[in-house]
Design brief:
alpha+beta; three-stranded antiparallel β-sheet; 6 helices; 3 strands; elongated
Length: about 120
């Protein structure tokens, strides 16, 4: 767990020369970005925090970020599942609640007579 407790300032989501997507935690985002570009990586998304936080906190912050690359959110969710499943479950519940709240309302009020007709047909 010592690795999870180390504080980071950001994450970089990049793909290597072979197209494999990677999530890189870093203390110095500018330096790490420069090094990854030098190594031939393609940078897709960068998420930073104002102050150093743990890796799991950084992943939670990243989930609220609007990603440019299609696989970025999936990679972050996979890492969060690996590190802290409870936090991921809570985030997924919140997403589902937001989706349900944004669904259009339906007019489901029916009269007692219509309900009787439906019950008779069963």
């Amino acid at each position: 767990m010592a690795k999870l407790d180390r504080s980071v300032n950001g994450i970089i989501i990049a793909s290597d020369k072979h197209g494999r997507n990677k999530v890189r935690f870093c203390d110095n985002v500018k330096l790490r970005t420069y090094l990854l570009i030098k190594q031939g990586f393609t940078i897709h998304d960068i998420v930073t925090s104002p102050e150093p936080v743990s890796r799991t906190e950084m992943l939670k912050l990243a989930l609220d970020h609007e990603f440019d690359h299609d696989d970025s959110e999936h990679l972050v969710k996979n890492l969060l599942f690996k590190y802290d499943q409870k936090v991921l479950d809570e985030h997924l519940k919140q997403d589902l609640l937001r989706e349900i709240a944004n669904r259009p309302r339906r007019d489901t009020d029916i009269t007692a007579q219509e309900l009787d007709n439906v019950l008779k047909q069963l």
